Amino acid sequence: MDQERKEPAFLVEPRTVLEPGASVTGKLIYDAPVKIDGRFKGEIKANSLLVLGPQAEVAANISAGQLRIEGSFIGTVSVKGWIEILPGGRFQGEIHSGKLKIYAGAVFEGNAELGAAYPASSS
Length: 123
Hints:
Layout: E1 15-18, E2 23-30, E3 34-36, E4 39-52, E5 57-69, E6 72-85, E7 90-102, E8 107-114
């Protein structure tokens, strides 16, 4: 009767799927925590933690469980849990999320609708 315990998303080191210097256009869908540190344009669906690393340049529609922004993001985000924009992170667009934390040294330009549990995926 041993059931495997899953660690919370914020304790699991995300796997990098786009290294610095990589550039991709399209649609990414992930269940595991992932990190993007390259350029991406399109749509991202991540059921767990999504990290946009310090060298990330992302223009996308994102739905995720949680989102950490360390690089540059332009677009729309719907997140079940929390979004945090770290020092050096830049956000431009629209947020729908349960919680939002903007650290000193981060940039936020846009609109935020907070407090409700938004679906991480619409399909």
